[in-house]
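> tool_call: predict_assembly(chains=two)
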Amino acid sequence: MLTFVDFVQEAVSGIKDGSTVMIGGFGNAGQPFELIDALLECGATDLTVVNNNAGQGDQGLALLIKEGRVRKMICSFPRQSDSWHFDAKYKAGEIELELVPQGNLAERIRAAGAGIGGFFTPTGYGTMLAEGKETRIIDGRGQVFETPIHADVALVKALKADGKGNLVYRKTARNFGPIMAAAAKHTIVQVSDVVPTGSLDPENVVTPGIYVNTVVRVPAAAAAGKVA
Amino acid sequence: MSTATSIQTSATPMGRDDLARLVAKDIAPGSFVNLGIGQPTLVSNYLTAEQDITLHTENGMLGMGPAAEGDQIDGDLINAGKIPVTELPGASYFHHADSFAIMRGGHLDICVLGAFQVSATGDLANWHTGAPGAIPAVGGAMDLATGAKDVFVMMTLLTREGASKIVDSCTYPLTGVGCVTRVYTDKAVFLTGPDGVQVRETFGCTLEELQELVPVPLKAAAAV
């Protein structure tokens, strides 16, 4: 069921300890900062977080990691010039890391939303990231078996939602949003604008509302200074 | 059989920008290309409008333009290195699974990557030193190495310690097996594949001098 709420705190209030949470964004583009801040505030802990990165600077996912709420990160690129909170936790042995090539990460998320039980991919074949995994030669190429990544919750940032929960995104901030929205049991979306049903061109809807459970409006002005 | 002098095309080693210019010149008109982070990004400075190259960025865009400046900077429009960029007319956006389907599906003509090592048969090592305590980060490197029709590498031929980065067999963890087709270095352009390493041209050295630096058998490439 689709609900519209007024506050980010209300949107994330159902997230339980031990949940697997997908968080959209590539770097800071598309990262739902206000929803992450609310998740931090609500106190849920022992989380498994799925994101491309492992937090930047002193905001968003980086703070969730700093506060010890994340038991495990599933990501492709944790190490960055400003990933100091993840780096410290990792070196202290206080966070688990499952490192996944970025395309395998995306396809494993997509597979979860699409009901696929697994797939063979050439990416990673013959590397240490394929160690222990089933392999086959298909069409003359070595391929690795990868399984879907499911989640209890997805936190996604989009540009607009209509009254049916249909979403459109903005530029490269789209990134993981559509596939995470489909992969999670409960998808929470922050949008800059909620527009009347019928005002989005159905041809241009990127995420159909069937994947969306909770929508909260966070005006772009409130996110100012956190977009770069 | 070519002689060593016939493949020497410059009297001095290539600088980074000259090498980027050479890579740009070698990209066929109309190609779809992904440029890796770091030195490969320089290639975009030398692509011409006449070439009509479409740049792909892994975070969901075709038709990426130059780096954004001043008022153009938009936090929602960045490249794989998380640098603000611009969009060109005819650009398109898509989600991450589609972006990597573009790579994995063999739709990109060329990707240009940096490397720690390339083996004689085109194995690539460019994501992890494997050093104890190093935090591994792979990003899209394995997907690019595996998916593009041609994988070009740009790197210095030698490490700071003077060891060749073209090796018989990679000692660093692999990114992809047998994927590199061409290696652009400051001292030569190498063609790699199942038949071993051929040298297309040398910069500031002869083939014989180059062979003294590189621990795998080199032969001159047949003239194209």
